[in-house]
């Protein structure tokens, strides 16, 4: 019955019971419970026999929790991954910094975009800038780090852009030298 066409089409409606741990992994475990068999009879032993022949079988619980990464083969695994991601923590990605010169050689304006690819909103965090001090001949003499607050909240799936004026101590940038903020990292929740 796990190979029956009805079990595949009915699996998205029954994913919540498969995610409870009553039946194994995204694809194989949802088949028996979606075909109408009672949950007690469609638990690990019968689903476990169907899974070893599949590429994603073996560890029932992790395949449900990591459905987005490992369940790309079947439609059921993909839908589990999508719903599991919506309830997950925030995951921020940072764009390449866009630099703009300032009237002082030891300062520059840096614009960065943050994209939240996670399931929850980013509510706090910090942005760390790595500002390189560049000599007249192009030699990178030092990197100075500075930290700013993350522009929060950033909702799930949203992108937020902010511009900061990043400066280092004036004595670090003598005449003929300049700064370049090349590195940006973020730590958030």
UniProtKB/TrEMBL annotation:
- Give me the stretches of Gly residues compositional bias: 66-80
Give me the stretches of Low complexity compositional bias. Answer: 32-49, 81-93
Renumbered residue ranges of the record's region Disordered: 1-101
The organism sits in which domain of life? Bacteria
**What name has this protein been given in UniProt?**
Uncharacterized protein
Species in which this protein is naturally found:
Streptomyces avermitilis
């Amino acid at each position: 019955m796990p190979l029956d066409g009805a079990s595949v089409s009915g699996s998205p409606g029954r994913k919540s019971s498969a995610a409870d741990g009553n039946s194994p992994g995204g694809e194989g475990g949802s088949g028996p419970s979606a075909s109408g068999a009672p949950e007690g009879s469609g638990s690990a032993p019968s689903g476990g026999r169907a899974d070893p022949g599949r590429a994603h079988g073996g560890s029932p619980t992790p395949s449900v929790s990591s459905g987005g990464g490992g369940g790309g083969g079947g439609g059921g695994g993909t839908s589990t991954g999508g719903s599991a991601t919506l309830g997950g923590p925030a995951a921020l990605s940072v764009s390449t910094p866009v630099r703009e010169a300032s009237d002082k050689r030891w300062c520059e304006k840096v614009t960065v975009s943050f994209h939240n690819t996670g399931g929850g909103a980013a509510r706090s965090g910090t942005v760390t800038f790595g500002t390189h001090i560049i000599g007249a001949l192009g030699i990178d003499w030092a990197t100075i780090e500075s930290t700013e607050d993350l522009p929060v909240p950033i909702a799930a799936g949203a992108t937020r852009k902010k511009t900061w004026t990043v400066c280092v101590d004036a004595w670090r940038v003598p005449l003929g030298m300049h700064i370049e903020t090349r590195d940006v990292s973020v730590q958030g929740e």
